[in-house]
Amino acid sequence: MNMGKIMASVYWPRLIETVLEEVQKTFPVTVVTGPRQSGKSTLLSMFLKGKGATVINLDDPGFRELLRDDPLSYLKQVQKPVLIDEIQQMPELASYIKILVDRDRTPGTWYITGSQQFSVMKHISESLAGRAAVLSLPTFQLRERKNINSLEDFLLGSSYPEPAVNSAVRRDIWYSSYVQTYLERDVRSIMNISDIRDFEQLLRLLAARTSQVLNYSHLSNELGISVPTVKRWISILEASYIIFLLPPFFKNLGKRIIKAPKLYFFDIGLVNYLIGLSDINLLLNGPLAGPIFETAIISEVYKYKLGRGIKPELYYWRSQSGIEVDLITSEKGSYTPHEIKLSKNIKPAFYKNLQYWLKLNETDQSKGTGYLITNCKSSLPLPKNIGNIHWQDI
Fold first, then answer.
1. Measuring CA to CA, which residue among 102, 130, 127 is closest to residue 114?
2. What's the pLDDT band for 43 if we cut at 50, 70, 90?
3. Residues 166 and 194 in one domain
4. Is 51 within 8 Å of 26 (Cβ atoms)?
5. pLDDT digit string (tens) for 288-300?
6. What's the CA gap between 303 and 139, in Å, rounded?
7. 51: how many CB neighbours lie within 10 A of its CB?
8. Which tens digits make up the pLDDT trace of 118-156?
9. Same domain for 290 and 385?
10. Peptide bond into 81 cis (omega under 30)
11. 5 lies in a domain?
12. What is the separation of C-alpha 370 from the centre of its chain, rounded to a whole number of angstroms?
């Protein structure tokens, strides 16, 4: 029985397609996780196009009941390859897939999507360890978006496929619906949280604090809930790909560093919706211009790593005296510092922290060069160990 394919009227290629081509040659199972509406089903449907794949959509409650009668027999007889969409609706299927994979380890046979990382990964790790390639598909990365031609597009646009691809979509209505669906369907029913109003308030508080060091106690006091509850709710937002945390860099630099992580959102459009920003002039002239630009940049770097099938190793560094480097990337054991500045002009003060950090790391493994990420396209003289990257080229 073929359950049909989930296709988009307009498809923009994804970075992770190259990784899919690689893993289908060696792994019998490929798991793609990510937030709701990031394009997981469309990606795999396009990838499997022309291969006669069976698609099992577990969002259909009637089909879930049918499948529960004898899942092993059904999965055994369906035409391969198989795409199982939204496996978090029936995570027990992972155990049956393991049985079938152990009988036949043909690469590229099973493809699985899941929106809630915590429920999916628990069963995948227990049942399909060593059998599955696990990939993450976040919202669109800058290189995947075809309509970003200005800073306004970048800072006010959406990286979710539907509002990004379809200019006719009212973004305020789309985000309102997305947030309510997320709260009611995922948070309330799947995560069993009853205080939805407080949870939504936390989400909005975090949006106003994007790119800041996470302070659980302050959030606890503002919301009137316990610190353990705040930590649990933030872990839920992480696991459902709404936010990610940037840990501090811990190499022995001879300085005490701040130990709390910094918080960022995957999608800048969601941040703008939650804080009520829709005008580029108000954004650029407001107090959140820098934090929103920083969030947009770091989320793009994070998503680019995921698109290459790499677990992002990204950090920030800040000493107790206040010297800070916004982003430190890691590549094959080498570390590179970056400063993020929303400016068309570059001043020496912009890169002094990069030089300070590079000086501290003279004997450490590093590329020996620091980079500014700015809104400056001009070619201008910089110190030999400092480079500039325009945001469109990240």
1. 127
2. very high
3. yes
4. no
5. 999 999 999 999 9
6. 8
7. 11
8. 767 777 777 898 999 999 999 999 999 988 999 999 999
9. yes
10. yes
11. no
12. 25
Please, are residues 85 and 58 in contact by the beta-carbon 8 Å criterion?
A: yes
Domain closes at, from 136, 152, 182: 136
Q: What does the pLDDT read at residue 367?
A: 56
CA proximity to 6, closest of 104, 78, 98, 86: 86
**Whose CA is closest to 300, among 114, 105, 112, 148?**
148
User: Rounded to an integer, what is the distance from CA 90 to the centroid of its chain?
Assistant: 23
- Judged by DSSP in three states, 19 sits in helix
**Residue 248, both tokens:** 């501090």
- Are residues 85 and 67 part of one domain? yes
Q: What secondary structure does DSSP assign to 102-144, as a single string?
A: HH---TT-EEEEES-HHHHHHHHHHHSTTTEEEEE--SPPGGG
Residues 260 and 174 in one domain: yes
Number of other CB atoms surrounding residue 287 within 10 Å? 8
**Residues of the domain holding 277:** 143-393
Indicate the pairing of strand 324-331 with strand 29-33: unpaired
